[in-house]
Structure formats: structure tokens, C-alpha cells
């Protein structure tokens, strides 16, 4: 799937160098697990709040990535296919 | 990872996802109203119960025996089947029936409901409400009720009872397999991409793939937990059945041959509640079945107790109290597989952390729907491609048939 030459210099740089894949998914997974457990085991005010915060972070990160993607190439959706 | 291994993982991901996606979509969509069913019910239907009498705080509850004898006096010749104090409100529900046999016979006639109940104020023992008499005209069903009921039954078993539940459990297992294989593929696809990249400046297919990867990675842990606990929940009927034919049968063996004791000379119901509370310390007693109840003993009160914390709230410990003498026979904690089931329930329902947790549950659910939809788009796009190739192989002229209008669309 990487056979076609990249079309933009920015894309080129990000395609060439290998990046570390797992830190982000693992961090989000741990946050989710913590959020699920802290409300279940903690039951009290602060644990509930921590649970809400921990479970919101994956959603916030997703939203941030989407917003960033939207800003980067607002007009070219599907244009070069 | 060799190309062959990768191809195998891809095939696993493709097929496990394809098979379960439609059902997963049903489950995700119907789960949303179920999550907020209490709020929906309150907003659109509400209850017409009279408000509770305002009494000074700390007013002690009346003995349950008073309510039981009141109920028996109202329906002489009938039996009391259950006594259930409400968990949240100062009310006690006393259930009755003409006889155990009549209740059993109800199964044969879907329209017959010989059981009925009386709701008492727990503090004053005044009657608050009664169930509608069996021969009264049925109240019209509300739209809210129909929608919530349909959603629940679709979610649990597609209107197909136990086979439906087991089928949905199988779909849950496939979903977990698809998540695991998807994670392996994610590692491969994202090798040269920073986390969260969505390439909108290239082929639309890549944007969908990036979106599928981003949303999937962000919700992976949640989807695994809710998917797996959903699978465990679908096994509840066989698991309870297993318990019934093993431990429960063993416990009740010495009493199985005895006739059901008459309700005229039973020991105190209130005392049975107190005995059960002592026998299962830290637990709340939520209900009592009278001797002769299905799956119960002919001579015992069966009291259901559950833990007081969210983690243990669905861990039930039944307590047997001899209804002839009022003596404790024993408390029977559930076997490990039922404990596992009970713990997996809050993790599936998302109902243990207040309204914010429910809202988060709904949002994560919506993201999973987006993962499913993007997965279908990726599959459908690829399918079209391979169909095109197949058609070309058959010497169809695709330049005229499909590609030209598509190009014209792009030119606009």
C-alpha cells in the first residue's frame, strides 16, 4: 500500500520514518480501564469524578485529532482520489 | 510479521467483523434508549402513584407481618407468593396468587395473569396501590413503552428467547475477536503514521481507513469490556440453570419430597428478614419468596440479599429460613461463574457512576457505531473494486458503464 509515491512533502516525511505505534493506544486503554474501575471500586465523589475525567480523555483526544485533520485539509476532501 | 500472517489476521478481521456488524449496529443503537430508559420513562410517561405521606424522618417501618396479614385478609383463600420492600422508596410490594398451580398454569396461556400485587407504605402499612385486576380491560400501551420494550428485546435476544440470546452472545464473541484482530492490523497500518493522523488530502478510502483506525484505537478498551461483558450477560440463563441443577438441587434435596406447608401457620416474615440480614452481614435483604415457589423449597422462605456497594450490588446471596420454625437453614453464596456474571453487569450497563457516566457511555457507543460504519464503508469500497476487476476479467466495458459518470461527478 505504500507503493504509490506520496503526493505532498508533508505526507512524504510522515510516511517514510517509522513512528512508535503503541504509546497512545496503550495510554488511552489504561485511562479507560482506570475510569471503568475507579467508579466501580471507589463509589465516592472523588473516584466518580476521576472516572468521568479518565473516560472523557479518549473522546477528547479523538475530537482533537478530527479537528486537526479538518483544519489541515479543509477543501480537498476526496478531491484527489 | 510475515505477509502470510498479516493476510491471515486480515481475513480474521474481515470475516469476524462482517458477520457481527449488522447485529452490533442493532445492539449499539438499541442500547442508547436502554441506557436512559429511566429518564425517558419519567419524561414521557411518569407514574400516577400518589405521593408518599410526609412523616417525620426516622419513623420506623411497620412490621412486614402486618402487611402480609392485611393482604391475606383482603384476598381470603389466596396465597402470598412474595414480599419485596422497595430499594429506593418507602414501599413494600406483596404479591399474591390464587395458588402456586394457578401461577404455573399461566405459562400455558399467554393472556392469563393470575398473580397480582398490593403496594403498602412501609411505614404506615397503608395500601398505596393495587395491580389491575386480571379481568379489567387492558390499559393501552404507550409509545414509550412499546419503543423501550422493542429496543430491549432486540438488544437481548432479537425476540427469539434463549436461542436468540445465545446467538447474540456468539456475536459478542465474534466482536471481541474482531477487536483483537483489528488491533494487530492497526499496529501494521500505523507503522509510519503518527497517532490520530487522518489523511484527508489523499484517496477517500485512506481517510476512511484513518478514521476507522483512530476511532477504533480510542474506544478499543471500552469496546472490549462492554463487548465481553455483553457476551457474559447473554449466558445468564444457562449459568443460572447450571446452578439450579447442581448446588441448588443439592441444598434442597432433604426437603424436596415434603408437601408445601400451609400458609396458615407460618413463622414471622419480619423475623425471617431480620434473620437473613444477620446471616448475610453487609448485605441488604431485597425480597422473600414463600414456601412452594418455583425453584424454592416447600418448607422454606427464600430470602434474596445483595451487597450494598456498586461492585457487590448485583451479587446475590440467597438465604433459607425454615418457614415452620423460623430458624436459619443457611446462606448460600453463589458459585464463581454467577459472581463473575453479576460483576460483569454494571460494566455492561454503565449504570454505576451517575448521569455523567451514562452520557460517556452513550458517546463511546456513538463512536463505536462510527467504527462499525467506517468498517462497512471500507469493505464495500473494496468489494466494488474487486467486482470491477471481476467484471473486467469477463470483458465488460467498464469505461462506459461506471467510470465515466463517476469522473463527470468529480469534474463538477
Automatic annotation (TrEMBL), chain A:
<feature type="transmembrane region" description="Helical">
    <location>
        <begin position="47"/>
        <end position="67"/>
    </location>
</feature>
<keyword id="KW-0812">Transmembrane</keyword>
<keyword id="KW-1133">Transmembrane helix</keyword>
<protein>
    <recommendedName>
        <fullName>DUF58 domain-containing protein</fullName>
    </recommendedName>
</protein>
<keyword id="KW-0472">Membrane</keyword>
<feature type="transmembrane region" description="Helical">
    <location>
        <begin position="21"/>
        <end position="41"/>
    </location>
</feature>
Automatic annotation (TrEMBL), chain B:
<dbReference type="Pfam" id="PF03929">
    <property type="entry name" value="PepSY_TM"/>
</dbReference>
<feature type="transmembrane region" description="Helical">
    <location>
        <begin position="359"/>
        <end position="380"/>
    </location>
</feature>
<feature type="transmembrane region" description="Helical">
    <location>
        <begin position="207"/>
        <end position="232"/>
    </location>
</feature>
<feature type="transmembrane region" description="Helical">
    <location>
        <begin position="165"/>
        <end position="186"/>
    </location>
</feature>
<protein>
    <recommendedName>
        <fullName>Iron-regulated membrane protein</fullName>
    </recommendedName>
</protein>
<keyword id="KW-0812">Transmembrane</keyword>
<keyword id="KW-0472">Membrane</keyword>
<keyword id="KW-1133">Transmembrane helix</keyword>
<feature type="transmembrane region" description="Helical">
    <location>
        <begin position="12"/>
        <end position="36"/>
    </location>
</feature>
<dbReference type="InterPro" id="IPR005625">
    <property type="entry name" value="PepSY-ass_TM"/>
</dbReference>
Amino acid at each position: 500500500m505504500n507503493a504509490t509515491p506520496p503526493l505532498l512533502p508533508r505526507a512524504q516525511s510522515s510516511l517514510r520514518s517509522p513512528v512508535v505505534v503503541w504509546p497512545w493506544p496503550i495510554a488511552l486503554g489504561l485511562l479507560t480501564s482506570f475510569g471503568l474501575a475507579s467508579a466501580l471500586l471507589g463509589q465516592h465523589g472523588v473516584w466518580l469524578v476521576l472516572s468521568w475525567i479518565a473516560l472523557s480523555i479518549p473522546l477528547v483526544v479523538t475530537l482533537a485529532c478530527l479537528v486537526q485533520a479538518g483544519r489541515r485539509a479543509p477543501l480537498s476532501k476526496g478531491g484527489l482520489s | 510479521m510475515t505477509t502470510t500472517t498479516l493476510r491471515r489476521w486480515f481475513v480474521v478481521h474481515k470475516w469476524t467483523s462482517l458477520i457481527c456488524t449488522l447485529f452490533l449496529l442493532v445492539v449499539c443503537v438499541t442500547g442508547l434508549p436502554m441506557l436512559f430508559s429511566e429518564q425517558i420513562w419519567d419524561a414521557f410517561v411518569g407514574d400516577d402513584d400518589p405521593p408518599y405521606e410526609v412523616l417525620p424522618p426516622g419513623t420506623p417501618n411497620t412490621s412486614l407481618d402486618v402487611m402480609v396479614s392485611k393482604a391475606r385478609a383482603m384476598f381470603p383463600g389466596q396465597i402470598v407468593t412474595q414480599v419485596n420492600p422497595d430499594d429506593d422508596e418507602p414501599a413494600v410490594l406483596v404479591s399474591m396468587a390464587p395458588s402456586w398451580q394457578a401461577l404455573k398454569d399461566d405459562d400455558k396461556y399467554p393472556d392469563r395473569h393470575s398473580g397480582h400485587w398490593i403496594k403498602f407504605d412501609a411505614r404506615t402499612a397503608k395500601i398505596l396501590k393495587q395491580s389491575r385486576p386480571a379481568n379489567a380491560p387492558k390499559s393501552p400501551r404507550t409509545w414509550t413503552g412499546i419503543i423501550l420494550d422493542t429496543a430491549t428485546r432486540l438488544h437481548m435476544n432479537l425476540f427469539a428467547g434463549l436461542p436468540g440470546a445465545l446467538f447474540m452472545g456468539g456475536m459478542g464473541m465474534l466482536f471481541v475477536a474482531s477487536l483483537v484482530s483489528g488491533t494487530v492490523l492497526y499496529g501494521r497500518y500505523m507503522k509510519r503514521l503518527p497517532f490520530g493522523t487522518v489523511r484527508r488530502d489523499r484517496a477517500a478510502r485512506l481517510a476512511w481507513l484513518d478514521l476507522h483506525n483512530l476511532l477504533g484505537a480510542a474506544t478499543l478498551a471500552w469496546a472490549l469490556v462492554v463487548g465481553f461483558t455483553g457476551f457474559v450477560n447473554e449466558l445468564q440463563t444457562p449459568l443460572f440453570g447450571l446452578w439450579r441443577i447442581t448446588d441448588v438441587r443439592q441444598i434442597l434435596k432433604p426437603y424436596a419430597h415434603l408437601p408445601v406447608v400451609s400458609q396458615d401457620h407460618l413463622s414471622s416474615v419480619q423475623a425471617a428478614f431480620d434473620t437473613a440480614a444477620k446471616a448475610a452481614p453487609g448485605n441488604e435483604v431485597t425480597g422473600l419468596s414463600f414456601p412452594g415457589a418455583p425453584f424454592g423449597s416447600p418448607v422454606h422462605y427464600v430470602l434474596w440479599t445483595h451487597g450494598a456497594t456498586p461492585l457487590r450490588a448485583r451479587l446475590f446471596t440467597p438465604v433459607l429460613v425454615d418457614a415452620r420454625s423460623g430458624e436459619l437453614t443457611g446462606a448460600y453464596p453463589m458459585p464463581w461463574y454467577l459472581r463473575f456474571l453479576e460483576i460483569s453487569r454494571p460494566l455492561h450497563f454503565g449504570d454505576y457512576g451517575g448521569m455523567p457516566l451514562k452520557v460517556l457511555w452513550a458517546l463511546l457507543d456513538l463512536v463505536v457505531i462510527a467504527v462499525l460504519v467506517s468498517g462497512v464503508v471500507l469493505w464495500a469500497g473494496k468489494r466494488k473494486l474487486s467486482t470491477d476487476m471481476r467484471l473486467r476479467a469477463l470483458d465488460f466495458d467498464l469505461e462506459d458503464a461506471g467510470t465515466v459518470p463517476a469522473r463527470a461527478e468529480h469534474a463538477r
